[in-house]
What we know:
Layout: H1 2-47, H2 53-61, H3 71-99, H4 103-132, H5 136-155, H6 163-186
Helix pairs in contact: 1-2, 3-4, 3-6, 4-5, 5-6
Amino acid sequence: MNSFNMTSSLKYPFCLLLTTLVLSMSYTHAHITTKNNDNDDLITTMCHETIAPSICETDIRSDPRRSKPDKKTVVLIIIDVTRSQFLEALTYTKNVTESAHDPGMIRALNKCIEIYNFVVDVSSRSAIAGIETGQPKYAYDAMKDAADEAAACLKAFPDNPPVPFVDRTRALKQTSAIAVKLVELVM
Length: 187
């Protein structure tokens, strides 16, 4: 009978310990899930203010910094995305220039290279510095300039610009416009 009481008395603390452990794990899971949902909600909320919410979300969610975002981080991510797209356009344009023969086309391509270099080297860096130093107006102006510069590339062509440039310009202007709107949200 003593052994029965002893076994029974050990079961109660064990059940209590097990219940506490399960509840603790449930709370931890709920807390982590809520934290991730908060991150997702911030990105979704900010991106839904832009002209292209799904593109905005895709671009931001592809960056590893998105796991712990605040508004500043979201803006820095989209500025980096914008810079990367201009850098890709720059590389593409340099490659096209190497095989071009028409003098008017070469002049237009060189103008686009100059424009893309400016956005990559000056506008993007100014935008990042503006956000990092708490002066988002500089970032706003720099990203607005980036959108304008993308359009200026098309105007450099004497006749109708080649379709790849029209498509790239549309994408560059769209990403720049997304960046402008996200910067507005931190101003």
